[in-house]
Batch of 3 targets.
Target 1
Amino acid sequence: MKNVLVFSLILLLSSSVYAQLVTVGPKVGISHSTITSKGVDQIKAGDSSVGFHAGIFVRISVLGFYVQPEALFTSTNGQIKIDDPNSSTVKAAQNLTYNKLDVPVMLGFKIGDYIRLNAGPSFSLILNRKSESIGSEVKSNYKNATVGYQFGVGLDLNRLVLDLRYENNLSALGTDVTFGGKTFQTDLRNRLYTLSVGYKLFQ
């Protein structure tokens, strides 16, 4: 009986310590997305768009610091515009809608009991994509996987987790665009501002 009580006490303490060090939970959010272009004057960023993401996060905390890997299904949009080389008017545009699996790995620390600062790499795998040309035929070459970075600020309110982040690519989302039979070598990147809310299943 004594051994059972001792074992139960050890198990209870271990569970309490584990809950303080590790927490898991779902998270959902929205994003504001823009596709940017570098290297070609005729290709410009188009209209921004709103997307969404959903998934899970795991936070491991030690001595005021933490690492937080996440797995998120992200659906977002973007647009590029192509100027007529002979004029300053927009000749055509292309809307791009794509779904991807995002795996950010955030490193951070807490300021007081509620505020968090974090940053880290983000790995993305494109699951599927759809392009829609407006005004004229436009063909783009997009990569299947990219590496980027995120940084932002978070807020912990008991079990509620809020995150506001900025995200951009370290590797190009696309490298060339064909318009009017001519191929332009460019550097397309996806810039996002994300707002998400999560819930700690235990703490």
Note: Confidence is low (pLDDT under 50) at residues 4-19.
Target 2
Amino acid sequence: MIDLKFRPRKRERLTAEEERDLARAIHAAERRAVDALAGVEFAQKIIKRKPGRAERTRAGEVDRMEEAIEALWQKSKEQTDLRDRARTAKGAWAEAEDLRWKLAMSGRRIAHGEARKLMGPFMSEEDLVQEGYIGLLRAAKRFDPDRGIRFSTYARWWVRAQMTRAIDHTGRPVRLPGCAVEQTRNLRKAMKRFEDAGEQFSVADLAEEAGIDTERATLLLAQGKTISLEEPVDDGPRPRSLEGFMVDADAEMPDGEVMHDQELLRMRDAFRLVLTERQQYVLSRRYGLDDSEYRTLSTVGKEMGLSRERVRQIEREALHRLREHSGIRDRKVG
């Protein structure tokens, strides 16, 4: 069996058996946490809730387990008879989270390798590595050791998907689906191959190289074109530019301070809905959401009685959870 205190060194990799043992240890810790919820009706309702389409995955199951444990923890503050169960569930779940982090970080070389391939003008290698870590965490959450595939192989897809999604969000004014971004990249690569070989090519040639139809290739290549704000966008005796539609000189400008306060309210609402109390505290202190004073990892760690690295892990987990629930901030402020 794998040593559960294992911390991979910079160049060390897990063997296939070690990956499977670590994943099974994660599942065992999750089962212990769920066993502690036996007989707690409201927690069981959450776990057995009929999943929506997006939740019919292992990740959706893990999210429901975590939601049930958090609900029990909150309820135990009012009902003392639930405290032993809540502590047992919380402890087992914390163990599962630590093991999941170790499994994810055993593949961090993948994040660095893919970042070097995909870095460009819109995202640096360092930013892509951080996105790659998020992809590794998503892979660790979903990994099934009994499917006969290595975690390093499975995780590479999630790392690349997370990075391409981040590049798409950063580099394009209009978001494209992840599959479209990948197809566009293949079209660009095909174009470069023809140009390097000095050969003439058409859109049909590029489409054949990328394995898609010509109509879709034409559409995807058109997405890369830019539009000038001064370009006329309507026909008529007095054509107007796009800027003319966007700017209203007579419109009343919103007060910056009011916008800032409303944004903070939305952020706090989102924090309460998707983050644990510890995660809320770390982000609030790190980024000065309460007093506009930024703090270092070491400072926050001293306040909480935790190590600098543990605070970094909690911050990363919180940011990952907020990204997963990115649409929640658009709810109306109560």
Note: The CA atoms of residues 165 and 178 lie 6 Å apart.
Target 3
Amino acid sequence: MKISLGSGSLLSQGGASSLGWVERLRRFPWSLLLLLTFTSTVGFGILYSAVGGEDNIWLFWRQIMQFGIGIGIMGSVALVAGEKIYRRFSYLFYAFSLFLLVMTMIMGSVGMGARRWLELGFLRLQTSELMKVALILALARYFHDREGAKGLGWWSMSVAFLMILCPMALIIKQPDLGTAVLLGAVGMTMIVVAGLSWKVLLVLILVLGASMPLVWNGMHTYQKQRIITLFSPERDPLGSGYHIIQSKIAVGSGGLTGKGFMAGSQSQLNFLPERHTDFIFSVLAEEWGFLGGIGLLLLYLLIIMRSLLISEMANDRFGLLTVVGATMLFAIQVVVNVGMVLGLLPVVGVPLPLISYGGSSMVTTMIAMGLLAHVSIHSKQHGRSV
């Protein structure tokens, strides 16, 4: 999403003109940026080992460059726009992202059996990443406009559910089950926080349970195989179960303190597949052991706690739900990725935030963090910069 720096009228909307640049910088959540930077730096070291050192060093340098771009995007999202800009254009952004998903389905490029990218000449855009942010903003606006309602009735629930299902259906079609499930989880979390009636929630759970046979029949064969493999990877150790078996071996062989930097046999001898993306946590666990894995999870916990503290400062329901959505987007990816490499969840291709290699994931994460910082900067309850 691009915001023109030359438009004075744009910056003045939503009361942004009342805050000078010095004040905005003072209110910026620098502790959050410090945590993000430290976690990403840890990720650079893990990635260097995962890609095999000098053989694929360009991946290492590109990740550093992508994080630098991400910091610039985070700063722009947080500092440039006025307080109400994101709320005002949230539906437009959602519609645009939905349009991009449709265009991806029609004319997107194919890679690894999936049609997930739009080739824009100078840019290869994974459109589902934009939808993660767009859905958060659209749902936050939708529930903000219904702030006076006592709980969410059937109609409100149906509209919100439709806003989630439309992009999910298009993303499943690519196919990208991991991102679709992630969108659904983030969307449902926001609905519950917004005030979902317990009666509606109970009915929804019952309907979801009853529809599972239909969902199963509608899944691709490889998606069914992933779920079967979750419970019994040994049934096909050289096929569908290979990834998770090798991941478990890597995690278990790390022990308490690990084998040391670039000394993991599973990763360095190429037994571990997708070790620089989906299974990068396995590289960390093998080389730095249980303590290294716990250390990274503690960093994630600090980021999540710092993000939730910002939710207490939100001026309105839109800000609150934006922070909740952005935080849950980050947290759910951590839970799904770590659960996946430990064999607790199916392998669905969800990256580990700030650690897994990938420009689209990095940019999306930093946009979400920029929205958090934006809420903090414009908070009327802001006492001092933290």
Note: Residues 280-311 form the longest helix (32 residues).
